[in-house]
Structure to design on (121 residues):
């Protein structure tokens, strides 16, 4: 049986899987990184075609020798107000979709990400 990427509740129907998951030490975060951009920035939350939610980020660094990954770690550290050492690449070193761990208060970190979501209609 295939894993379903969306959750369903009786009241609201299918719900997208969020871009993050709280852990005992912080968050696990799924990011789509675009290197070679005109600037370093977080663009917000987006849905992939398969229904998964990701955080969109752009960095100026080239995707060579891990430079873009390091730039992403620095960008996320600044966004969360955490040291760079608190952001670790878990998976996706050579792909656009990456999984990172951010250590810190899971509730506070999740709140920062929730603030990026567009207001409900």
């Amino acid at each position: 049986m295939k894993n379903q990427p969306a959750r369903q509740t009786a009241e609201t129907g299918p719900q997208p899987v969020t871009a993050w998951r709280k852990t005992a030490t912080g968050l696990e975060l799924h990011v789509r990184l675009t290197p070679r951009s005109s600037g370093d920035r977080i663009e917000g939350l987006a849905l992939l075609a398969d229904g998964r939610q990701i955080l969109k980020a752009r960095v100026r660094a080239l995707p060579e020798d891990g430079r873009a990954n390091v730039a992403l770690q620095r960008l996320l550290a600044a966004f969360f107000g955490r040291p760079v050492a608190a952001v670790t690449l878990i998976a996706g070193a050579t792909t656009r979709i990456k999984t990172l761990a951010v250590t810190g208060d899971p509730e506070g970190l999740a709140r920062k990400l929730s603030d990026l979501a567009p207001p409900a209609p």
